[in-house]
# Entry
Amino acid sequence: MSSNNTLPRRSFLKGIGTAMALPMLDAMTPGRALGAAKTAAQPPVRAAFIFVPNGVHMDNWKPKTTGANFELPSILEPLAPVRNDLLVLSGLTHDKGRANDDGPGDHARNAGVFLTGAQPLKSEGSEIRAGVSIDQLIARQIGSETRFASLEIAAEGGRSSGKCDSGYSCAYSNNIAWRDPATPLPAEVDPRLVFERLFGNQVAKEMSESQLRRQRFKKSILDFVLEDANRLSGKVGRDDKQKLDEYLTAVRDIEQRIERAENGPDAKQVSSRLRPAGIPSDYGEHIRLLGDMIALAFQTDSTRVATFMMARAGSNRSYLPIGVREGHHSLSHHQDDPVKLEKITRINRFHVDQLSYLLQKLKSIREGDATLLDNSMILYGSGISDGNRHNNENLPVLMAGKGGGSILTGRHMRVPDETPMTNLFLSMVGRMGGNADRFGDSTGKLRGLHG
# Structure
């Protein structure tokens, strides 16, 4: 505790192997005494980059009108509760996702270029090259301000070596975050491991002991920080007590959902190599759990940068819960077959439904007079437009959140054809507190984000 009794922003509830970062509390405002009257503090801006494979059915994605009075197309309808927090962007292009004399391999290329804006080297051997991804450029500049520089997660696993797409390494298909041009950052697919990383004290022996005790004695991670939590609750004001209670309740809810996945009836029937025990059999629940991890990481300022692959590039998984038995990639080669297009629309809408869950979660978390979503930039999209054409112009992209008040949302914004998507990335850097004059194939910052 500082001399004026202000609670430091980097405060933790601690126990054996546990370091549970706290959300932003009124008591963390500089110059404030614990329990004093509410005053405003400027929260940081966060950014998440969410990738979906195989493009979308563009006729059911793109709004028919631009500006503020657009109607949500069928794929985007699940976003109705957060419509005014959206900026749908049309016209952005990833030129380096095109073949450019490299031949086939569009799926691997579109993932490799998605956050780098760099032409991936066509290689399935040890030599791989893309570019530094925008999330990692930002993490380099502001990552020291948080416990973790960045967070990389995925709802579908895959190897990072060998051949995956027409002579391209699997490193491109299964990763969108690149620390440097030759080093992809593998994403974590197991919610249990993400949970332990976020709330562990990073002392391996103590973390292992904590997890073992919880499993053996059926305890919650909250049991290990209860004494600290009670002590803090007795010192803060009423609003902070409520925030603390809501936060701990959310943590416990996620913990219980992971436990259900680990102890469910089908948990022991699935090879741990194919699906670790902490991964729910329900794909939608898997995505939502990982989305909750992003929300907690942002809420506690554990990181301000995250990447999330809902599925790997070229994914051919089926979607039985929504009545789609065929593989996603196979369907994406629809050849304008209306039956296939209807199923592609269902898959696209399913992904957007999971996005809506995350956005509503972020919107429900208050930060002063704003919300966590207001103070975020959540970019969602694909590196391919239409899965049948494998084209890389007019990409399906949207941004959610106001970037700390610097983005005018509730609009469909059309930019000139062939505008590099990296222009959008470049415009995000400054809003995150970083600085860059160029990125990938950018030609300048994207104009019009603030209206």
Q: What stands out?
A: The longest strand covers residues 411-420. Residues 1-41+204-277 form one domain.
